Amino acid sequence: MDQPHLRRYCLILYLGYLSGAATHQGMSDPIWPPTGALPGSGPFSMDLTQRQSLSLNLGWIRDHQMKTIKKVITFSWFQFMLYYLIRLYSWTFRVVVENEDTWKNHVSSGGRVLICAWHQQFFAAIRHFKKYERYNPALMISKSSDGEIIAGIARLSGWHPVRGSSSRGGKIALREMIQRLRACGLAAHIMDGPRGPAGKVKPGAIQLAIEADAVIVPCYAAADRAWFFNSWDQFFIPKPFAKVHLRFDTPIHLFKPKATADFEVQRKQVEDVMSKELRSIDRQPDKGGKSL
User: Fold this and answer.
1) Helices 203-211 and 170-184 sit at what angle, rounded to 10 degrees?
2) Please, what is the Cα angle at 227 between 125 and 121, to 5 degrees?
3) What is the pLDDT of residue 22?
4) What confidence tens digit (pLDDT) does each residue in 76-125 have?
5) pLDDT at 41 over 80
6) Which of 84-94 are b and which e, b meaning 16 or more Cβ less than 10 Å from the residue's Cβ?
7) I need a surface site. Which of 25, 138, 223, 249 has the fewest CB within 10 A?
8) CB within 8 Å of 154: residues ≥ 6 apart
């Protein structure tokens, strides 16, 4: 038996002992091995009451762990440490950037740009996007626990996190994003975040670009070697010293729709353009992907 499984087994036995102690407190009967075991289940089995107590104990442990984690990720020292670990790790990447000057010239001439990316690809761009802090750009991030981590990293990267999503606080966040994009000229949006479906452009990004009179600039990230997670979007992290390719697509100009059908046509147009750049293990340039 390997060590993780051994530790887990010992924890279960110990909690079972505590459960028995609580159940039999004040009684002279031995509390371990438990009495009333199911027939044929072995000397270390637990009766129904003890199994219920064990289940409650394990549930309490999980809840306590989650509360502790949610508290820790809000600490500035944790976000600071994580941010610099990411920057140190990303320093190993060999980054190639394509077509960046097109949208930067547009902003310099008084235009507005909304950089849009897929959720699965944002990790590869974190280090490079630090270079855009002079624009004081904004980024919409969900109010989830994961969003708390991302918001801290974005803030340290020089981006202003606006908290909200389609499921929670979206309307208020969208209004703030529109104001900031109008004022600063640059913002970014994760098109299918925070929970998908993968490759599905949310209406909020289209509305944001239209209301702020901004062009949408798709941004894609690829790596010649990467780890792919078994998540809803196949989130990937480039391997150390991987060659990372960041490519900004041609700006997409939108117009104020006269009808609902016009809005959907534009949303579908952006989705069709960007969906071609979704990544998977099979689509890695040198098949250098690995599932986690």
Assistant:
1) 40
2) 30
3) 41
4) 888 899 999 999 999 999 999 999 999 999 999 999 999 999 999 999 99
5) no
6) eebeeebeebe
7) 25
8) 139, 141, 160, 161
Q: Which of the residue ranges 33-47, 107-121, 264-278 would you say has the lowest mean pLDDT?
A: 33-47
CA 94 distance to own-chain centroid: 23
DSSP character string of the chain: --HHHHHHHHHHHHHHHHHHHHHTTT--S--SSPSSPPTTS-TT---HHHHHHHHHHHHHHHHHHHHHHHHHTTSHHHHHHHHHHHHHHHTTSEEEEESHHHHHHHHHTT--EEEEE-GGGGGGGHHHHGGGGGG--EEEE-SSHHHHHHHHHHHHTT-EEEE-BTTBBHHHHHHHHHHHHHHHSEEEEETTTTT--TT---HHHHHHHHHTT-EEEEEEEEESEEEE-SSTT--EEEPTT-EEEEEE---B-----SSHHHHHHHHHHHHHHHHTT---GGGSTTSEEEE-
Residue range 123-148, pLDDT digits in tens:
999 999 999 999 999 999 988 777 88
Query: Among 278, 252, 103, 125, which Cα is nearest to 192's?
Result: 278
Domains of the chain: 3-72 (no CATH), 76-291 (3.40.1130.10)
Tokens for 275, please give them.
């969906």
Contact by Cβ (8 Å): 15, 54: yes
Q: Is-cis flag, bond preceding 4, omega within 30?
A: no
Chain position carrying tokens 């004040």: 26
243-248 and 186-190 as β-strands: parallel, antiparallel, unpaired?
A: unpaired
Of 240, 239, 141, 248, residue with least CA distance to 190: 141
